[in-house]
Design goal:
About 45% of the residues lie in helices and about 10% in strands. The protein has helices spanning about 1-5, 40-60, 80-85, 85-90, 110-115, 130-145, 165-175, 180-195, 215-220, 225-240, 240-245, 250-260, 270-275, 295-305, 315, 320-325, 330-340, 355-365, 375-385, 390-400, 425, and strands at about 10, 35-40, 60-70, 100, 120, 145-150, 205-210, 285-290, 310, 345-350, 370-375, 425-430. The chain has 21 helices and 12 strands. Mean pLDDT is about 90; it is low at about 1-5. The chain has about 425 residues and is an alpha/beta fold. A 5-stranded parallel sheet has the order 4-3-2-6-5.
Amino acid sequence: MAELRHATSWKPCAERRSDEISDLVSENETSGYIFIHAEGGLNQQRIAICNAVAIAKIMNATLILPVLKQDQIWKDQTKFEDIFDVDHFINYLKDDVRIVRDIPDWFTEKDELFTSIRRTVKNIPKYAPAQFYVDNVLPRIKEKKIMSIKPFVDRLGYDNVPMKINRLRCRVNYHALKFLPGIEEMADKLATRMRNRTGNVNPYMALHLRFEKGMVGLSFCDFAGTREEKAMMAEYRQKQWPRRFKNGSHLWSLALEKRKEGRCPLEPGEIGFILRAMGYTKETQIYVASGQVYGGNNRMAPLRNMFPNLVTKEDLASKEEIEHFKKHVTSLAALDFLVCLKSDVFVMTHGGNFAKLIIGFRRYMGRHRLKSIKPDKGLMSKFFGDPYMPWATFVEDVMITHQTRTGLPEATFPHYDLWENPLSHCMCRA
């Protein structure tokens, strides 16, 4: 109870306030323009957009609406305006950062921002401090007037950035970046249908299941399977990541070490055992947010046997409804994001931007009163590796281990990013 009282004594405080005095410089005093390529999937792009606003503020620069770079896996060509409410984004931040929709008309060499080295700031270190931008990037922007910055994945730190800049990042993430109304409305429908599946209003669990082929391959962990499956996975890894694979002889010991350290994705069956040990019954309604699970129905069978009420957005929506969103794969990811956000219990099975953003949102918006379960995969690997452990002992260990892993706000640790835990930077005492 003491933990709950501590958690609920905090409230969001990154929103724009009516009495807030703007320190935005005039248009004539702006340092220049910055152009950002937001790379990766939806959630990595979201973080990049937040960071882009932050560095524009640091340098008193004007931000050109970020371009969502084509995702190499999904080949998705979604534009900012296809997924986010541009008007709300610009208006909400108008007292913080000057944002324009497009490259200024007076700049006639627009292709240079995509191709020319002369117009690109490269070699920004990961998690760079704010001062790095002032010392190394700002002079080039003042000289050239417009500069592109790429790559831009994790190029701004956390504890080496002023508090007001971190709070601005939260303002962007939690308040300025809104999905289009059509996406929000469809997500509301899916959440309502999820609650009404049994004819009565019921709570539901959202499970972010990260067990796609690419994730399994990239993890370089070992999983249950036939010799043929293991040989095919080895061939896939060798083709995709030849430098890491080498001849494969070192990977077995590495896989064991990673599993002991909790760095391997949980298999569908493993998360099923954990949820049953936590007391969730086969009647539990579970919304699954996932790509195509590696191993298909056979891999999903143990989880489905334990929890037969597993559904996806494709099960809840009509073909016509889903077809509308298939034009942009990112829109489908946004639906998963919102339905998970609205759930009574959220469960992650592996790290990544999706899960930490969901947990961060629930903490920030007061949804920490609803559980967000982050399994301790290191301890779980020890339990799963003991074939003689009685079920009662396993249940006790799972319950004790996860008593404090339910998504309550915690103080943000040094070097610990604020997307998962915004308390220290973006929340205030209630």
